[in-house]
Amino acid sequence: METREHAFEQLINEKLGMLRGTAMRILGSPADVDDAVQEALMSAWRKFAGFRGQSEFATWVTRILINVCYDMVRDRAREHEVLADYGESGNVPGEDAEDMRLLDRLDAAVARLPKLYRESISVGVLSGRSPDEAAAMLGCSRNTLYQRIHKAKQLLSQSIREVSYEQA
Description:
Rna Polymerase Sigma Factor, Chain: A, Arc Repressor Mutant, subunit A, mainly alpha, 7 helices
């Protein structure tokens, strides 16, 4: 038990800023960041017995955090759809409605990507990590990461074009 407690204490002391930065890049909302990090740490604490040590402890927790963040993004998208069904715009007063629609479309398109490509975009592009760090975190080579990011961009572009065509 002491080992687990020590590992979590060390993680929080050394990596909390990195975890919060990762969550911020995915969620884009400071209000949601602490909730996501706390939920990920609690989940990691409960699942610690299943940690096999095949990757660094911080990498394992970061992957849990990424999944928590994407769950929150999906929930937010569902809430936005429900609000739209009831005639509420969901836009923040004072922000450009067109920009908000574009960001919402991009968020929705990223949320619809297969998990492999969502993670590649989040960790390889949005996290600010070096390509080598991102590849290690995702358990792949740098070249594989680049291929996944390229494919994710293709899928995002196609998805956005399809939505634009349907709306025209």
